[in-house]
Amino acid sequence: MKAIATGVAAPKAPGIAEVIAAGSVLAELAAAPENKVVAPENKSAASGSTVAAEKPHLTKEEKRAIGQAVLKRKLRLLQDPAAFLILPSNKEGHAAVKVLFAFDKAMAGIRKNAGKVSLPLEMASEAMNKSVQFENHLQDLIRSIEEEVRHSALSYLPPRVETMEEKIELAKSRNSYVFLPRSEEGRKVGLFLKKLGPLMFRYRATCQDFMRAAHLLQQSINVTKDLLTLTKELAKLTRTKKGGVTTPKGYESATRDTTVNAMAKAA
Q: Nearest 5°: phi and psi at 79?
């Protein structure tokens, strides 16, 4: 096998973001084109044209090997004090976290290249300001939801502090991500997203006003949309990824308004 879009590659070691994102979508490998094994390309000696070979179907043994490699990488990253776990509770959360890896990479690239000919300080400063604006917007949303659940039946629950043993068990879940930020902006947004998912789940479980719940849910969906838009804009400045940032699998279904409309009609 040549390369796997999940980030596990042979013989070259995969990047952090690609491997960690693979841990949450391993179950979709057989169905998701971008998560399948990429077959070697066949080049015609006569014309020099490139013809993509048929993509092979992953066997159970291959899937198991991929899963073990991903888990090993996640557990190793957890040993870094800066790394933390994110366990999304819905499709919106998964889509946002997938975009988070690209956002963090873009911000790290901006910090690295700021002041160079390719990235003047004025442009870098403008990009940083846009990142701060997004962080403030996300923080305001979290505060709004916290205000809604303050007097709920679950509001007495203290914040969870994960032990290393708990982190290891959570890392074994295919729905979990281990995020090791490359930038301060990525760290902040990652922690906000880590908090947003469980908080929104708690609110949906205890809210008394479905119209208000639909409004806040739409805002959480907009967070994912805004993060993707911002990330694409930042990636253009860094020029670190040919073709720019791609829309992650599941983004379209996660950001549709059908769930919000259904909640509104139930009010």
A: -70, -15
108 pLDDT more than 90: yes
The per-residue pLDDT for 190 is 95
For 7: left if phi > 0, alpha if psi spans -120 to 50, otherwise beta; the answer is left
What is the H or E stretch that residue 179 is in?
strand 177-179
Q: Quick one: which H or E segment has residue 27? A: none
Q: What residues pair up with 94 in beta bridges, in sequence order?
A: none
Count Cβ atoms within 10 A of the Cβ of residue 122 and give its class: 0-12 exposed, 13-18 middle, 19 or more buried.
exposed
Q: What is the b/e burial string over 201-212, where b = at least 16 CB atoms within 10 angstroms of the residue's CB?
A: ebbbeebeebee
Decide: 247 and 228 in contact? Cβ < 8 Å: yes
As given in the structure block, the two tokens for residue 73 are: 């990488």
Q: Do 6 and 159 touch, CB atoms closer than 8 A?
A: no
Q: Indicate whether this model's pTM tops 0.85.
A: no
Q: Does 184 score more than 80 pLDDT?
A: yes
Helix (H) or strand (E) holding 114: none
pLDDT for residue 57: 82
Burial class (CB in 10 A: 0-12, 13-18, 19+), 16: buried
Contacts of 86 (CB under 8 A, 6+ apart): 93, 97, 100, 176, 177, 178, 179, 190, 193, 194, 197
Residues pairing with 18 in the sheet: none
Q: Measured at the alpha carbon of residue 159, what is the angle toward residues 176 and 88, in degrees to the nearest 5?
A: 20
- Range in 15-19, 35-39, 119-123, 161-165 with the lowest mean pLDDT: 35-39
pLDDT for 159 equals: 57
What token pair was written down for 78? 């957890």
pLDDT at 64 over 70: yes
